[in-house]
């Protein structure tokens, strides 16, 4: 505790903050070279009852050099996203909570289009990474430069691709949609639980349904789950109850190895260090690195009709799943089957969403099978058309 004020003051000095100001929050930035690459640290200080609280957010520039194929492991999902990004005009929404990797995904999408002859402009608050060959504008609200103002200025600069850091209000959303309808590809972010929820969010902002349906190409929802340590993970067999909680059954998961993280307490870590048994890869954390979980909803004619009819989010989600959308839950469970993460991580990340019940319902509707011939059944079928077995028993 004695060194905390000195450490706090040192961080403030390096980040060019006012060390004498302890009553107001402050924001700063530290830039350092680490193993030959540039790493930025966004520094935020907050006065509290017991002293200043300091949070550092790590921004690794090497992350912006990752292609979409390095982020999205599912081939079908990757193909859909790449097809969306290659469009000449339209609106693409990326949704998810703070810290879910939205910025990295957006920058990777821009990298797909960043080539000579393509005019790309971004407006951000703040600019997190420097992107070569791209015009980047920082929001300065006190000077009157907000997202909508910058976006309108971009339209007079003959752009091909536009990125809006965040759509927070009706004016920004309307300007972005108008840009998408006039021959520009626009990428922006929203804060929603899942991809279908983005439609309702735009509606809440006051955007007319016909403008949403005519401009929107698709929505990419995402999360980040921790990657289980490959060197100390523990194989185990989930119970029937555990599998049922995630909409799975033991018969479906035959031959799949599930893993738990070998997470140690602070006391166990110290003991393992003393005995020389501490995992050198994860240092007892049980996880090493993170991987993305994605849900892509590409707007089809059926979804356009539902949007124009102002259908509820649950109905939009059901139709999207029926048309092949892989949900956040389905994608994360694929990562579990591959041994990349754990059911505990799925519980922590995916199961916190309020839309989970609708997700499971949609998943069940599209996974109906005939109890006699195991053929796939559509939700509206009452009998199996292949063997005429009634879907429902008397």
Task: Set out the fold topology.
Layout: H1 4-14, E1 26-34, E2 37-48, E3 51-60, H2 68-71, H3 75-85, E4 90-95, H4 102-113, E5 120-124, E6 135-138, H5 147-154, E7 161-164, H6 170-181, E8 185-190, H7 197-204, H8 209-215, E9 216-228, E10 234-236, H9 240-245, E11 258-260, H10 266-275, E12 287-298, H11 301-308, H12 313-322, H13 328-337, H14 343-349, H15 356-365
Parallel strand pairs: 4-8, 4-9, 5-6, 5-7, 7-8
Antiparallel strand pairs: 1-2, 2-3, 9-12, 10-11
Helix pairs in contact: 5-6, 6-8, 8-11, 11-12, 12-15
Q: What's the number of structural domains?
A: 2
Note the run of SSEs as H and E: HEEEHHEHEEHEHEHHEEHEHEHHHHH
What do the pLDDT scores average to?
Answer: 89
Whole-Å distance between the termini? Answer: 70 Å
What is the third-level CATH name, the topology of the largest domain?
Rossmann fold
Question: Low-confidence spans: pLDDT under 50, at least 5 residues?
Answer: none
Family: Belongs to the GSP E family.
Pfam family, one: T2SSE
Domain Bacterial type II secretion system protein E: 5-348
Organism: Fischerella thermalis CCMEE 5318
